[in-house]
Write a structure and sequence with these properties.
Elements: E1 12-15, H1 20-31, E2 35-40, E3 63-67, H2 73-83, E4 88-91, H3 97-101, H4 105-109, E5 116-121, H5 136-142, H6 164-188, E6 192-197, H7 198-205, H8 207-216, E7 234-238, E8 244-248, H9 252-261, H10 277-288, H11 293-300, E9 307-309, H12 313-316, H13 320-324, E10 328-333, E11 337-342, E12 356-357, H14 366-372, H15 377-385
Parallel strand pairs: 1-2, 1-4, 2-3, 4-5, 5-6, 10-12
Antiparallel strand pairs: 7-8, 8-9, 10-11
């Protein structure tokens, strides 16, 4: 059961990003109860961040918003005032930008020694690639993920169906690092600077394949290793209705159960016999093609065979298992109406909550946030008149 109060209640986060790994990280922190302020530039200065579609990153669920001109000295000073009361700062600028703005780790540490300052980039703060621009596909390419994935029809690497580098390689990497730093701070009171590189997060995800090469000299790739389809028991199969099944019967007893259910007991002792894999795969293909996907799922999934359906997005959002687990929550947008979205579903999160009312794009909490940092009303009004904050 979820805790009575969110795990990160009382933790204050300033997030300088608009998209990418940093925004995924702050989304997760907010779902665990942290008070997250999204810090963006003022529109009147023409410095408009990328504005993602209304439904992305939880549609702003549980976040506050502040717009501030960090290039203006008064804006920088206001941000540092906020930083004195923050626990975490997340930023995703190119290396060196926050230092030039006067809001880098050294600047913040001077006013808040306990700050956990997380910089997220594609390739890190140092090294030959540090200055490269990039996105998810680039990080998956450099991290070896694409080279180990099944090639497309023209022989080239595939375009993945999820932003794995942004989410797991970068976002989750940042969350884990931030939480570890907060735990240490709770012990010795010291803050920490975190250099999170999405490409390095991909390397961590690819460690099984990389370590295989480093230890044995074997080059991993599609159909070359157990987890990349070398064996018939770890593959995808088309069914009679044109849909697909995933089969991951790695353990011998699961594989034996599968062979028996398909009437292919003759292959039980050849699970890892490379000489017979084409024959076994063809036999599996022939068997699965005789029935519809969901018929196979109904029979095989409960029978310890490691079989599951390959769902389309429209199918998975209606799946009764996910409905039972409380995966999706309701939201309401003035223009787009009611919709569902993925809720705070990571372990320990509070899955039941009120309908999320999506805010208008220009709506901010700037005055309240600055007042909470101790700025007097007249000082806030002056910043607003000068266009430093909105």
């Amino acid at each position: 059961m979820p805790p009575e109060s969110p795990q990160l209640e009382g933790i204050r986060v300033l997030d300088l990003s608009s998209v990418g790994p940093a925004s995924r990280a702050s989304r997760t922190l907010a779902d665990y109860g942290a008070a997250v302020v999204k810090v963006g530039p003022t529109a009147r200065k023409g410095a408009v961040q990328v504005r993602p579609p209304f439904h992305t990153y939880g549609a702003g669920r549980g976040l506050q918003k502040l717009q501030i001109d960090l290039k203006a000295p008064a804006g920088r000073d206001a941000f540092l005032r906020l930083a004195t009361r923050a626990d975490v700062i997340i930023e995703s600028y190119r290396p060196g930008v926050v230092d030039r703005l006067g809001i880098g780790y050294a600047d913040v540490r001077a006013v808040n020694a306990g700050i956990v300052y997380c910089s997220t980039t594609g390739y890190g703060q140092s090294g030959p690639a540090a200055g490269w621009a990039g996105h998810d596909l680039n990080y998956l390419a450099m991290g070896g993920y694409l080279a180990c994935s099944e090639p497309r029809a023209d022989g080239g690497p595939p375009i993945p169906g999820a932003t794995i580098a942004d989410s797991a390689g970068g976002g989750m990497h940042a969350v884990v690092a931030i939480l570890a730093a907060l735990v240490r701070r709770g012990i010795d009171g010291r803050g920490q600077y975190l250099d999170v590189a999405a490409a390095e997060g991909v390397l961590a995800l690819m460690a099984l394949s990389i370590d295989q090469y480093l230890a044995t000299g074997e080059v991993p790739g599609p159909r070359r290793a157990l987890l990349t389809g070398r064996y018939a028991f770890y593959d995808l199969y088309r069914t009679r209705d044109g849909k697909w099944l995933s089969v991951g019967a790695i353990e011998p007893h699961f594989y034996a159960n599968l062979c028996k259910a398909l009437g292919l007991e003759q292959y039980i002792d050849d699970q890892m016999n490379d000489a017979r894999q084409d024959e076994i795969r063809a036999a599996f293909q022939g068997a699965f093609a005789t029935r519809d996907r969901d018929d196979w799922v109904d029979e095989l999934a409960p029978a310890n065979t490691c079989v599951a359906p390959v769902y389309s997005i429209p199918e998975l959002v209606e799946d009764p298992h996910f409905a039972n687990r409380g995966i999706f929550v309701d939201a309401e947008h003035d223009e787009h109406g009611a919709f569902r979205q993925v809720g705070p579903i990571l372990a320990g999160g509070r899955r039941n909550g009120p309908v999320h009312r999506v805010r208008k794009p220009g709506e901010t909490d700037t005055a309240a946030i600055l007042a909470g940092a101790g700025l007097a009303p007249e000082a806030i009004e002056a910043l607003q008149r000068e266009g430093v904050v909105e």
